[in-house]
Specification:
alpha/beta; Rossmann fold; 2 domains; 8 helices; globular; binds flavin mononucleotide; binds iron/sulfur cluster
């Protein structure tokens, strides 16, 4: 079973690579969270591998992933291996430990955590922007090799966390235990998104928003206060009609080339 969350397609690409090798079903966390039930139940086989694939947001797991885990019940779980495979622009801090803790509260044991360096998609604050085309292409070129090594480690049941397969980065404690909680509580729920006259009313932003934060009013998107900053809307608008205040006007946009 491969539970995945993605904003701009990097994590979906990783999830699909895992599916090709392990032949487990892909389950979209964003869709599952929209289901009415308080508890989200799934049956696991005795020989099943369980994966969580998601982007690192502010040196921790994307918040929808931890919200999903809080509602998760795995029927038939008897210690089958659980893996975390996160994607990041360059460093994850202690995302692995935060995920481990969230899983532990549900009685699930994380066997190993890996990360894949992918093009950066965070552009909402000053000082943060997408990678240059050269760096973006280099990361996309390296991704299959990173996946090959992660898949080999899973197949060989290696549990040690080698630096090449998980990217902690500098000052992980301050970032994951200091900055991440601020992000997860303060940044979430507010947003400064706005639409420009370039909007062609295609409705894509409304359809892809994982939190149903966007609705079209007279053909143009309006945002509620339930945004989790996945940045899908701003990057995937086909005509670049979404901005974040003035911050993103001169910044590039990115989404994984294979995402539809
Ligand atoms: C809100 C937010 C915070 C982010 N924080 C980090 C971070 O702490 N470290 C990092 O390396 N990349 C960070 N990124 C970049 C993403 O982790 C990276 O681009 C990821 O591959 C995006 O995955 P997706 O395409 O599946 O959404 C952040 C992106 C967003 C939107
Ligand atoms: S995705 Fe872009 S063009 Fe389409 S409705 Fe949203 S803002 Fe308008
Ligand atoms: S409003 Fe945009 S950034 Fe916020 S959750 Fe929806 S798609 Fe993601």
């Amino acid at each position: 079973m491969i539970f995945y969350f993605t904003g701009t397609g990097n994590s979906l690409w990783v999830a699909k690579q895992l599916k090709e090798t392990f032949d487990e079903p892909l389950i979209a966390i964003a869709d599952e969270l929209k289901r009415g039930e308080k508890v989200l139940k799934y049956n696991v086989r005795t020989d099943e591998k369980i994966f969580f694939v998601y982007p690192v947001h502010s040196w921790g797991p994307a918040v929808l992933v931890t919200r999903f885990i809080e509602r998760l019940a795995l029927e038939g779980y008897e210690g089958q291996p659980v893996y975390s495979v996160s994607t990041c622009g360059d460093e994850c801090g202690h995302t692995d430990k935060l995920l481990r803790k969230a899983l532990h509260k549900q009685g699930l044991i994380l066997k190993a955590a890996y990360s894949v360096i992918m093009p950066n998609n965070y552009i909402l604050l000053p000082g943060f922007t997408v990678d240059s085309k050269e760096i973006e292409e280099g990361k996309l070129e390296n991704a299959p090799q990173q996946m090959k090594r992660i898949i080999a480690a899973i197949q060989q049941e290696l549990t040690d966390k080698r630096d090449t397969l998980y990217h902690t980065g500098s000052m992980p404690g301050i970032k994951s235990y200091g900055v991440y909680p601020l992000f997860a509580h303060a940044a979430i729920g507010r947003n400064s998104f706005r639409v420009t006259e370039a909007c062609i009313s295609c409705g894509l932003c409304e359809r892809i928003c994982p939190t149903s934060t966007i609705s079209l009013k007279e053909g143009k998107p309006v945002w509620k206060n339930t945004c989790v900053q996945c940045v899908a809307c701003i990057h995937r608008c086909p005509v670049r009609a979404i901005e974040y205040g003035k911050e993103t006007v001169k910044k590039g946009r990115y989404h994984h080339p294979e995402i539809k």
